[in-house]
Structure formats: structure tokens, C-alpha cells
Amino acid sequence: MRSLGRRDVIPSARRASRRRADWRRRGLVLFLMSPWIIGFTVFFAYPILDTAYLSFFHYDLLSPPRYIGLDNYRFLLHDDPRVWPAIKNTLWLIAVMVPARIVFALAIALMLARIRSGAGVARTIFYLPALVPPVAATLGFVYLLNPATGPVNKGLGVLGLSGPNWFQSPEWAKPSLVLLGMWAVGNVMVIFLASVLDVPRQLYEAAEIDGAGTFQRFRHVTVPAISPVILFAIVIGVIEALQYFTQAYVAAHIAAGQASQAGSVTTSELGYPLGSTLFYPILLYDAAFRRFTMGYASALTMVLLVVAFAVTYVIIRRSRSLIYQEGTQS
Amino acid sequence: MRRGLTATLATCALALVVAACGGGGSKSTSTSAASSTPGASTAASGPATKLTLWVGWSDRELDVFKKVVSEYDAAHPEVTIDLVGGIDDDKITAALRSGDGPDAVSSFTSSNVGAYCSSGGWIDLAPYMQQDGIDANIFPSTAQYYTQYNGTRCALPILADSYGFYYNKGLLAKAGATAPPKTVAELTELAKKLTTRKADGSLDVVGFDPFFGFFQNTPTSFAPLFGAQWQDQNGKSTLATDPSWAKMLTWQKELIDFYGYDDLVKWQAGVGDEFSASNAFETGKLAMNLDGEWRVAFIQNEHPDLQYGTAPAPVDEAKSDLYGTGYINGTIIGIPKAGKHQDLAWQLVKYLTTDDKALAELSNGLRNVPSTTSSAKSPDLIPDQNFSTFIDIFNNPKSSTNPITAAGSGYTDLFTSFLANWQAGKVKDLQAGLAEVDKSIDAQKEQAEAGQAP
Predict the structure, then answer these.
(1) Rounded to an integer, what distance in angstroms lies between the CA atom of residue B27 and that of residue A25?
(2) Could you tell me the CATH number of the domain that includes residue A107?
């Protein structure tokens, strides 16, 4: 004889009551989640969907959007002469600035981890540049690296060296921005410092007993132990490089230094000198907020979205085997 | 995925923030009326309507403009005017698109009138002019041209700019020159003679800097010196087909190479800001310069002891009949579509653009060229020998401006980008390069006229 299930003995009134309680619980969950849901919908889902939608339209914000199919994407990929230089410049940033910042931040963190006295002061000093607003920092660097009047070139001159034209030179403008990026590396450095200090001492002692030297201890103990943080720094660095705007925009305008028609700024100053600092987000800004070709800017944004996703995905997939995790082999 | 999405959103947010920052920072200078004056309008019966007027002038120049506006303000109790200075075309365009702009707005970039008219961002002023019996012929023909697009007059000229030649009399005398050069060949020879270097080989005084992007050196301001034409009768770009362009660029590059590109860039980085008292011409670091008429007022204000002279810019020796002409453009003023008080705004625009006394007062303070034919002869104008050069250039029938197109100043942007490469020595085949720019300009124009992508 089949035993009666508990459900079978619950009267229908109780089942209805439980269902009501379930709905109330769901309602409460929904209510508690509503700030996130509203925020996600308004600030995340809607802008993305609207951007994707507008990328198929000609839209100047004055007249109603007009459907033009894939014309924006066609113009982006085939006709706009500034897209590929902007992509190349952005890739240069990813290839040079991201590793440079990570290596520099790690080196500073390792140095600070070894300091015994005055560690707090030293950490503060190295972190301070990260607190300087990017625009102010850029203005400062353009001044320091002014080829004619800047103290850097004057100092080089005293040593008998002729300094480059820095932000005024197409060859040196991007490296100048890298220098600026390395100077303001405090945020990454602090994370590295925390992770370096967190590496168990016994691992170093064991490696030392095994005869490992300084470099070997760094290579085989420090790096594996902080590898998740390195991955984090790479991913964040790449995303920041894909969004690189403020410093390049300010530096180009200040270094260009001259106005055209009685004080107005020309589009040619974007990316000054010779387009060497024309990065993808600057192109996007130009399309959206100077030319007001919102449909085209939306297409540029969608491409950036796909590229950012793809790059991040590839980095995470490729680095999985290189990341040390507790209980797994590095 | 989330990170990727976040990256894109963050990019958009960043761009928005930057754009918002770009829109701020203007100096608001309310010029509300203190009292009405005799002859003032008596139309007001209720509280005064606040009219917002955006202009590009700032600092000292804005003060001059403010004074003239305040006179109108005082005479018209029905309005109180909020004058905002330091406005550029980016801000104007942003306001047009946002639909929340000023009641009247002026721009230094007359070539953008095509974009403002064709987009409908600035309203057609013809009905107002007809209603008030204003004939466009009170403005010189060039000024009439750069304030309309395809027959739609969505702007009026409010003062004009003409470009001429400034020379430092002391430096020229030292070099044995008794008069300013009249041809490009003379200019080149004198520029080389006037150039001096420091002990380390870097440039100290530059004779004439032909670098595009430096101060007022643009293809638009150089084109009249060689009689270079921007487009043919069909509106097609003629950079490659008009040999004047190649001649001009070859001369320009040769002079840059005389200084050395890197040396010149370094010198430019060391001289002061164009619109400051450390302007290279004003401080004697630049012996000769192509500049607008406003420099007369700047010099008077900042370096009144500077011994300088003005003259029409030197021209191509093969086209000596061009001497006396120059590039002309001007400040334009219009009424945005989104303006809430268009009738009142028109009265203000009419006053600022057609009242000879107001124009003369503005011209005296700003040393800009008065933009009606009658105001250019106004007895209220304070005579100045250096300034009169520019009035003559403005009134020369052969002086020219650049074409007004639906793409606004987009075509000059394309050309200027090419020129940046050219003067840096990155262009191997000038003719082929110019032909490429022609193609891009024609395509851009076609797109703008058709309203197609992007």
C-alpha cells in the first residue's frame, strides 16, 4: 500500500496559504532587488540596447533618426580613414602601456615590501600621484616635457643631450603618455603590494633552503602566488587602455597649443601630433559629441563593446592555465 | 561579457562626462538693465523677459561687447540680457542638439553656417528681415555669402575679420628692409634674413612661420595669397586640379625645411600662447606674421610700445594683382530653433548687426571690421593706420572667403589633417595626396547634403 505523501494530507486551504506566502516572499525578493533591477535596466540594459538600435540609423539629434541599415558599419570598416589609425594606436597602448604599468607597479610594490623603516611614508609617496586628477597630471606632464621650456629637456641640455619633442613629436607622444601612466600607477601598485605582502613567508624559506636565489624565489614563489592579481591587473589595464581618453585628449590640445580661427579648436587637433594620440575613444567622442553623428558613434561603440568582450575573454581563457590557485598546479 | 559591456558603458559615460565638462566653464556675464533710457522701447508691460546671448569673445573683448549690449539692455525694459562669453562651435552644436540653447548665438566660424542652416538648427531670418525692411545688401557681398546656405539666410554678420600682414619695424630695419614684402619670394628671402638662432642652434627669432596650425595659419587664410580655389563650378574639390595649391604647399614646405621641422616645432612650443601677452609677434620672437585685424587691439592693450606695421599679405609673384586682397570671414549671429523668445531675440540681433553706431563702438573696442557698408565709413570709427589696412582688405572686391558647404568646416578639417602630414614630410607624392583629399571632401559633402551615414 502506497504511503500517503505529505502533500496529499495538506488541505487545499493550507496549500493556497503557502502559495500566497511564496508569492509574498517572491515579491519581497523582487522589492529588495528592485534598486539593482532598475539601475541595471536604466543604466545598463537600456543604453546598450538603444546604442545597438541607433547604430543602424542616421541620427544627428536634430531630426528624427532615419534607418540606413548597415551603412554606419560600412563607413566604419571601409571609408573612415581615421578608424584604423585609431585602432592601431589603441593596440599600441595595450601592447606597451599595459605591460609597462604592470611591470613598473610590481617593481615598486616589491621594493616597498622590502622597506623596513619608513614604509608608510614611502608607500604614501608612491601612491600620491594616483590621487592627482588626470587633467591636472596631464597639464603638469605637458609642462615638464615642453621641448623648449620644460625642465626635463633643460636638464638633458645641461648633460649635453638634446631631448625629444615629447608631446609635440609623433614618435614620442605615445611614450610620453606611457610615462604619465607609469607615474600615476599607484592604484595598481597598492594591490600588488597587498598581494606581495600576503605571500606566505614559509614558501620563501622553503625555496631558500632548496637553494633558490632572489630571482628564482621571485620567479617560482612570488609570481605564482600573485598571479591572480597580475591577471586582474592585465584585464583592468586592457579595459582602461580601450577607454583611454582624458590624458590623450588634454595632452593633444595643450601640446597643439595653437588655436585656428580666433580661438576655436579644430578637429585636426584631436590626436595631435599627426594622429599619433588618436585613440579609439577619442574617435568615438569626436563622432558623438563634436560631429553629432550619433548613429555612427553608436556603431563605433558596438564595435568597442565586441572588441572589449573578445579581448577580455581571450585573456581569461588563455591565462587560466597560468594562474596559480590553492590546490591546483601552477 | 559583463566586463566588456561595462567597458563600453564606461566609455560612453566617460565621453558624456567629458562632453559635459566641455560645455561648462563659460564666463557668464549678466548685463541686466539698471534703468531705461529715453527713446527706449515702451512695449514692456510685464516683467522683463530674460534673453540669453552666447558669444565667442572672452576677457577684455567680452567687456567691450558687454558694454554695447548693456546699452541695448538699458534702452529696452522689456528684456534683460544674460551675456555668456567664451562660446565655441562645439558648445553651440551641443546646445542645438540638446534643444536647450540660448535665445541668440554667435559663432566665430562662419564656414559652419552651412551646417547650422541645413540642419535647421538656426532659423531662417528672411521673414524677420522682410517684416522689418532690412535689405541684405546693406552688408558687403562676401558677408552676405558667409551668412547663408543655399539661399537660406539663417545668420547675419556681426563684425568681420580680414587677414593681413604684421611686421616688426625694428627687426625689419635691422635687416635693412624699408618696406614689408609684397610677394611670396620677397617674404621668403626676408624671413630667412630675419631668422636668428641661439648658441645651441635652436631657433631664437623666426622671420615668418608658415606652419599650418600655428596661430592663424590655416589653408583658408593662406589660399588668397596664391589665388587658390577650393572648388569648381560644380562644387567639386579642386585641391589637386588647381595648381595654386601645390605651388603654395611646395613653398610652405621649403620654408619649413629651412628652419627644420623639429626645430620649428620646438620653437613653437616655447613661444607664448597666441591670445596672451606673450604672443610671439608681440614679444619680438616672430618678425612677420599673418593675422587678423583684432591683433591691433591686442597689441594696443598688451604691448603699446611695439613698433610694428600692417600691410596686405604678400602674394604669389605670378599673381601680383592679388596684392591688397586677403582672406575674409566674420562672426555670425543667429537665432537657434529652440530659442523660446525668437521675436525678442530678433530685435537684439537686428540691433547688433545693423545699428551703425553699435557696430562702430564694437569695432573701436574689438578692432574688428564693421560689417555693414555704411558702418565701415562711420564717423564714429576711431581712425588707426594699422587697422585701416584691414578695412581696405575687407572692402577689396577680390578678397575672398572659403566655400560654405553642408559639411560645415569638415572639408577644412580633412585638408588640415593632410597638411599636418605634408609639412612633417610624411607625404611623398603631393599630387596624389591632394587627389585623395579631394575624393574625401567630395564624399563628405555628398554625405552631408544627402544626410546619409555616418
Answers:
(1) 55
(2) 1.10.3720.10
